């Protein structure tokens, strides 16, 4: 049975409470209760499949300390013709704004500038934070971890198109001719909204 958005949100919250409790508690009795809460969250998602329970438990065990949303960064870049720069993901064969998870010790701007260079070959400069979105509210589909997406307008400074171990295509697209997009990463509506920010830099940053 497909997991509902509500059940997924409940399981995520139970996991966050359990992991945060395990980080702060000192009593063994309390630790056992938090571990039980996390086991129930895993069961809620995985059901009776032992392999899936083990996989989820291992993934969640990597979250240590106070559990917070993960951060994904995306680069929106347009040329003089108004075309948008997209890369094609090897994993699903679909297109997206360049981007990915931000790494520890990177500023948000450094993270998005690194991602665009790694995935497209272009060296760019982040010029505006256009949007900070809750992933779960923008049609990206379900995912185990809760995350936020930061969309930056970027300007190309140098470099040339090339692929990477994550991407096998780099190209510029008209907004009325967007290819099939990797919706877990970025959506056509987000590309169109970024174009509005590109044309009107004075627009305030979008956020939920």
Tags for this model:
elongated, alpha/beta, single chain, 208 residues, 5-stranded mixed sheet, 5 helices, 3-stranded antiparallel sheet
Detailed description of the structure:
- With 208 residues, the protein is α/β, with parallel strands linked by helices.
- It is 37% helix and 25% strand.
- The chain has five helices and eight strands, in the order H-H-H-E-E-E-E-H-E-E-E-H-E.
- The protein has helices at residues 5-24, 28-46, 50-61, 108-120, 188-199; strands at residues 70-76, 84-89, 95-96, 99-101, 122-134, 147-159, 167-173, 206-207.
- Strand 2 (84-89) and strand 3 form a beta hairpin.
- The two termini are 30 Å apart.
- The model has no long low-confidence stretch (mean pLDDT 90).
The helicity comes to 25-40%
Shape: elongated
- Averaged pLDDT: 90
Tell me the span between the first and last alpha carbons. Answer: 30 Å
What is the CA-atom radius of gyration, in angstroms?
Answer: 19 Å
- In this structure, how is the largest beta sheet organized? 5 strands, mixed
Helix/strand class: alpha/beta
Instruction: State which percent range the strand residues make up.
Output: 25-35%
Strand order of the largest sheet: 4-1-6-5-8
Low-confidence blocks of residues: none
Number of strands: 8
Give the SSE order as H and E letters: HHHEEEEHEEEHE
By DSSP (H or I, 4+ residues per run), the number of helices equals 5
Q: Layout of helices and strands, plus pairs?
A:
Layout: H1 5-24, H2 28-46, H3 50-61, E1 70-76, E2 84-89, E3 95-96, E4 99-101, H4 108-120, E5 122-134, E6 147-159, E7 167-173, H5 188-199, E8 206-207
Helix pairs in contact: 1-2, 2-3
């Amino acid at each position: 049975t497909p997991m509902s958005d509500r059940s997924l949100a409940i399981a995520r919250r139970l996991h966050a409470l359990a992991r945060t409790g395990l980080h702060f508690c000192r009593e063994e009795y309390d630790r056992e209760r938090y571990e039980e809460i996390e086991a129930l969250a895993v069961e809620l998602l995985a059901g009776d499949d032992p392999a899936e329970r083990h996989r989820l438990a291992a993934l969640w065990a990597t979250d240590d300390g106070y559990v917070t949303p993960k951060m994904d960064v995306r680069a929106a870049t347009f040329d003089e013709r108004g075309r948008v720069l997209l890369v094609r993901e090897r994993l699903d064969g679909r297109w997206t704004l360049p981007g990915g998870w931000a790494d520890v010790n990177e500023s948000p701007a450094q993270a998005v500038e690194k991602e665009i260079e790694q995935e497209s070959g272009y060296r760019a400069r982040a010029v505006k934070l256009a949007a900070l979105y809750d992933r779960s509210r923008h049609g990206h589909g379900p995912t185990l971890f809760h995350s936020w997406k930061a969309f930056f307008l970027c300007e190309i400074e140098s470099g040339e198109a090339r692929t990477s171990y994550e991407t096998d295509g780099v190209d510029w697209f008209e907004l009325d001719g967007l290819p099939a997009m990797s919706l877990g990463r970025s959506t056509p509506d987000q590309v169109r909204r970024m174009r509005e920010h590109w044309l009107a830099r004075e627009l305030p940053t979008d956020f939920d």
